[in-house]
Every structure is written in C-alpha cells, then in structure tokens.
Amino acid sequence: MRPHSSFGGRHELGQNFLHSRSALHTIANLARATTGPILEIGPGTGAVTAQLYTLGRPLTLVELDETRISHLEHSFPRAQVRHADVLNSRIDQPVIVGSLPFHLTTPILRRLLRAKKWQSAILLTQWEVARKRAGVGGSTMMTAQWAPWFDFRLIERVPAHAFTPKPSVDGGILTIERLMTSLVPFRHRSDYQQFVRAAFTGRGRGMKGILTKMNLTDSSTLQSTMDRNDVRGDTLPRDLDPEQWAGLYSALHTSSAPAAAPKQTSRSGEKGSTMRDDKRTEKQSIPSGTGEIPTIAQTPVITGEVPIIGAEQANKKLEAQIPGLDADVKAKSHDKGHLQAERGYMPQHGKPSQPQPRWNLPRRRG
CA 342 → CA 318, 346, 366, distances in Å? Predict the structure, then answer.
C-alpha cells in the first residue's frame, strides 16, 4: 500500500490518471507543434510526462502530492520537479500542459489566464468545462471576458474509461492560445470584463434591451453601434463572438466617456434675462432704530404672472369693518375662545368628538 499524502487522498487531490494511448499521442502532437520550455501541471504517475520528455525540451513538473516527488525525480532526471500547488506556484514557461483535477478546473484556469509569461496551453479538463470554454453551444461569461486576448479551442473528447480510476464524467482536451494582437487593449481588461459581466447578468430581452437599461448612450447611437457589429436586438449574450464583444465595448466605452462640464457664465448680459435673475440690485440702507419703513422701488418687476381680475375689490371687502363693532374699540384678545365668542359660538352648543370604536362603525354597502 502506497503512502498517503498530507494533502488528502485521491478524491481530495482529484487524481484520475490518463492511460489512453490515443489521448496521450494527441497531447504529445499538440505539444510538439509549440516552441519553448514546457511546464506540466500535476504529472502524477508520469504518463503524459513520458511523452513530453521525449521532445528533448526543458521540462518543469509541478506536483502537489509529495509521495510522488521521488518517483518523478528518478524517472525524469533532466526535468525540474517542484513540490508546490499550482494555485500558488509561479507559471513562468511559454508552454503549459496539464491534466487538471476536475473539481479545481475553474480556479486553475483563472490563475492561468491571469499569468502573463505563457503563450500556449494544452489542458485535459472535464468535458462540459472544455465545451463551455471553447464556446460550443454558446459561450459563458468567463470565456467572453477573456476572449479578446485568448483563443479557446476544443480538440477532442476523452471517454471516462480512459482514466484510472474511472471518473463519473468524460474528459476533453482544450487548447488556449494567447493572441498576438488583442482585440481590446490589456489596460482596459478590468473595464471590459465589468461590461461583459453587466451584460450577462443584466435584465432585458436580447442585447438591445440589456444595453438600453445599462444607459451607456442614447438609443440612436446604440442602434447604429449594433448594426455596425452585426448584432440583432434579440441576440443573447452567449451568442456573441469575440469580435462583436470587442466592437460593442470599444464603441460604447468611447461614447459613454464623461464630457467636460460646461463653463458657467453670468446670465445678466444674456438675451432673455429677467430682473428676477439679476442679483445686482442694490439694497437701500436704512438707519437702525429710526422706525422707518423702506420704500419699495417704483421700477416694475416682470414676473410673468397673470394678474387676477377682481383681486383689488376682494381685498377691499376683506378690509371692510364688521357691522355692529366700534372701530375705536380695540380687540381684547385674539385667542381661540374670544374669536369664537365674537362669531356667536357657545361652548355648550358643541358636541365633544370622541373616537368611535371600530366594531361600532357602519358597514360599507355596495
């Protein structure tokens, strides 16, 4: 019985070793078409390593299971063996080859796509993951976010019985090539990926509805941009190719750039300015303690309000003397009780308003 790794058993390490000669030759031929040193992720028993070792190129092996380090060093003396986790190890070779653990495929892919020194990658992953990354049947958000800088291709399907022990799903060989000329400048990577994420998670029926709710530009500019990139209004985000994504982002990112704020000028000398807008009117200074009332300027103020016909007569009626009251007698009080007495209201005539219980309220009919 072989020793147990401190990082877990076969399930924790995702060890399903490839033994199919056909799949091994396919990986070797793909690696032969590349140039430069090779870095292999998870060599395991060394089945893929043996094919790469015959190429005679510098080879680096990154293995997490410490129980297999000595076997790899003895079997491949010219190779450099690292006991490390690929999620934390440096990726510093131009060619990457690896049979990725099925339960860690996405984290390793994210780590790989963020590294900058490699050029080609040949990966054996879960079949469904390989299909999604290659955009078969529609691309995923992750593929669309990295498509301007990488080319994803699905090579072939590897059946489950080609592994030992046999997994519950099939595998797939996926290749990733870094584009020589990117569709979007790399300095815009963060903004572009946020744009793609907003489109995939946004609401709306089709790209036109989604982009309209994102409020990136006006409707006419949006329609012309979609026409230039051959994007229909009912097209779903997963159906766009990398060129369409790059074209939409480049046009909408430029049109949505904030414009310079207009310079504020004085409105006093502009055409159509009113005296209400003119704040340069001088205030009359009145000595304090004199009791004088400031006189209102005789200059008419243009307010644009329509005069109310008959307002002066109504004001005179309100100012008229109440019959039966002496004009020389001053009002004794202005409290509520005195005013009610003047109007002929007596407290005993009023009924106290008490809150009526809800169960005693009349029912609504009809």
Answer: 17, 10, 45
Residues β-bridged to residue 189: none
What residue numbers bound the domain in which 218 lies?
Answer: 187-254
| 289 in a labelled binding site | no
What CATH number is associated with residue 206? 1.10.8.100
For residue 284 the two structure tokens come to 């009359």
- Running along the chain, 366 residues long, what does each successive block of 10 average in pLDDT? 48 69 96 96 92 96 89 94 91 94 89 94 94 90 96 96 89 96 94 96 92 92 94 94 96 65 45 49 49 51 56 60 54 54 53 55 61
DSSP codes joined into one string, 182-214: -SS-GGGHHHHHHHHHHHHHS-SSHHHHHHHHT
The single-letter code of the amino acid at 192 is Y
The model scores a pTM over 0.90: no
Count the neighbouring beta carbons within 10 Å of the beta carbon of residue 85: 14
Based on the fold, state whether residues 123 and 108 are members of the same structural domain.
yes
Q: For residue 222, give the 3-state DSSP assignment.
A: helix
**Residue 51 belongs to some domain of the structure:** yes
pLDDT at 9: 46
Q: Is 63 annotated as a binding-site member? A: yes
Sequence-distant (≥ 6) Cβ neighbours of residue 75 within 8 angstroms:
46, 49, 50
Answer positive or negative: Cα dihedral of 210, 214, 220, 226.
negative
Q: Does 42 count as an annotated binding residue?
A: yes
Same domain, 30 and 102: yes
170 and 35, same domain (yes or no)? yes
Q: 99 among the known binding-site residues?
A: yes
Burial class (CB in 10 A: 0-12, 13-18, 19+), 178: middle
Q: What is the C-alpha to C-alpha distance for residues 29 and 71, in angstroms, rounded to an integer?
A: 25
193 shares a domain with 173: no
**Final residue of a structural domain among 134, 159, 182:** 182
What are the structure tokens assigned to 183, written together?
């569709």
